[in-house]
Write a structure and sequence with these properties.
It comes from Apiospora hydei. InterPro entries: Fungal_Metabolite_Diox, Phytyl_CoA_dOase-like. This is Dioxygenase. This protein folds into 2 domains: about 25-120, 2-Layer Sandwich (Nonspecific Lipid-transfer Protein, Chain A), CATH 3.30.1050; about 140-355, Jelly Rolls (Sandwich), CATH 2.60.120. The protein has 10 helices and 15 strands. The protein has helices spanning about 25-40, 45, 90-95, 105-110, 140-150, 160-180, 205-210, 215-225, 350-355, 365-375; strands spanning about 50-55, 65, 75, 85, 120, 150-155, 185, 195, 230-240, 265-270, 280-285, 305, 315, 320-325, 335-340. The longest helix is centred in the middle third of the chain and has 20 residues, at about 160-180.
């Protein structure tokens, strides 16, 4: 596995830790040289950035791409302050070029673990103009038309005021409990004002009941087919003072990027009146179609706030570029629940096979829950111990995962008979 060194060797004679086919230093130099060649090849196009870009490949010297004139140039040094600084692995440049990695994803994917790799600065965005944008409606066919045209739609009154109150209470109390226990997961800037709740399937009966909502049956099979599964089931609370999330797509796990088909759909249940001021989800309308992306993923400028009253469901095509918006209110919070489905052959973000091994939750799961969570065989996938016939519900099976004795080929109990 790339980037993961061999572990402990258990069998004498099978130690591969000293075996290599590539010299790491030569490989790194080769990748840096190739990335430079690609940038030189693309110089005729790079004047379009109309900016000065400082590029660093790891610990190598910084060089500059000057796209401020009619012809872009590579400079070994420059005294001007760059518009953007980028510290990136040269292998990513190669993968962009070979269409193996979506460029915007590659620009920020290392920044979650290494702050130095986060691009700094700003390149202006292109602002799309539309004669109209989706509005909250109870007409589900209109919501579907909006999703097809804009990449998102707003289904109004999906939850009644009473149901909103029940689910809001469940989210807020769970968030308070996690803060008190010191296990709260926060984001939204250095002070972490936002809070995210993961694995809602384990967080209370309210969240199990929400999975019975018919809005799921109306939109998920329509978009993804009959066998879609939950990849994440979370809640997000945006609080005042947060920093907007970088623009991203929920289809980021599909690499190399395939843009002509939606692999997922996200349903966001609004538990508060959501406005531009209190942190409405920002969407980049129409960006689900074609090879489209915002020029600068680190600003929500040019995006639209998906505003709607409490009880609305924001339904999002997984290809659209979007982000949590800034909450500029003086007080209060904006809670919502995110129920994200992917096609059945896409690996789930949440490993439910481990997170659901709680004795008090598993017995409560209906067949509907189990099917949504992937405990169901489809298309020769999802079996246990080789059993993959279509349409089987699966669960933990005695003996699977235990260390068995080596089969000798001798007929009798426990023998391998081929």
């Amino acid at each position: 596995m790339a980037g993961v060194p061999p572990g402990k060797t258990y069998t004498p004679g099978l130690d591969f830790s000293g075996v290599t086919y590539t010299c790491p230093a030569k490989k790194a130099q080769s990748e840096a040289d190739r990335a430079h060649e690609i940038i030189k090849e693309k110089l005729p196009l790079l004047h379009q950035i109309n900016a000065l870009l400082a590029v660093t490949f790891g610990d190598r010297p910084t060089f500059f791409v000057d796209g401020r004139g009619d012809e872009a140039k590579i400079l070994e040094s420059c005294d001007d302050e760059p518009d953007c600084r980028l510290n990136i692995k040269p292998e990513y440049i190669i993968q962009f070029y070979e269409n193996k990695l979506e460029p915007r994803y590659g620009l920020f994917k290392d920044a979650f673990f290494n702050e130095a790799s986060m691009p700094a600065g700003k390149i202006p965005v292109a602002i799309n103009a539309f004669s109209r944008l989706p509005e909250p409606t109870e007409d589900v066919e209109q919501v579907k038309r909006d999703i097809e045209e804009f990449g998102y739609g707003l289904a109004k009154n999906v939850l009644s005021p009473e149901q909103v109150a029940i689910m809001r209470k469940a989210v807020v109390e769970q968030a308070a409990g996690e803060r008190k226990a010191g296990i709260a997961q926060v984001d939204g800037g250095p002070d972490g004002p936002n809070q995210r709740l993961w694995t809602l399937i384990n967080k209370g009966d309210d969240f199990l009941d929400l999975l019975n909502h018919p809005i799921i049956d109306e939109f998920i099979p329509w978009a993804l087919g009959e066998h879609a599964i939950i990849t994440t089931y979370t809640a997000n609370i945006a609080r005042p003072g947060n920093v907007p999330m970088q623009l991203h797509t929920d289809q980021v796990a599909v690499q190399p990027p395939i843009r002509d088909i939606a692999f997922g759909m996200n349903i966001l249940f609004y538990l508060e009146d959501v406005t531009e001021k209190n942190g409405a989800t920002r969407v980049y309308p129409g960006s689900h179609l074609g090879q489209v992306a915002p020029e600068d993923i680190f600003t929500v400028e040019g995006s639209a706030p998906a505003e709607a009253p409490a009880g609305t469901a924001l339904i999002v095509d997984s290809r659209i570029w979007h982000a949590t918006g800034p909450n500029r209110e003086e007080a209060g919070e904006r809670p919502l629940i995110l129920l994200f489905f992917m096609r059945s052959f896409i690996r789930q973000q949440e490993n439910n096979f481990l997170s659901l091994r709680r004795s008090d939750v598993w017995p409560k799961l209906s067949d509907r829950h189990k099917r949504m969570l992937g405990f169901y065989t489809t298309g020769a996938l999802g079996g246990v111990d080789g059993e993959v016939r279509e349409g089987l519900f699966v669960e933990w099976k005695d003996g699977v995962g235990r260390c068995g004795r080596r089969m000798t080929g001798v007929r009798g109990e426990g023998a391998s008979v081929g």
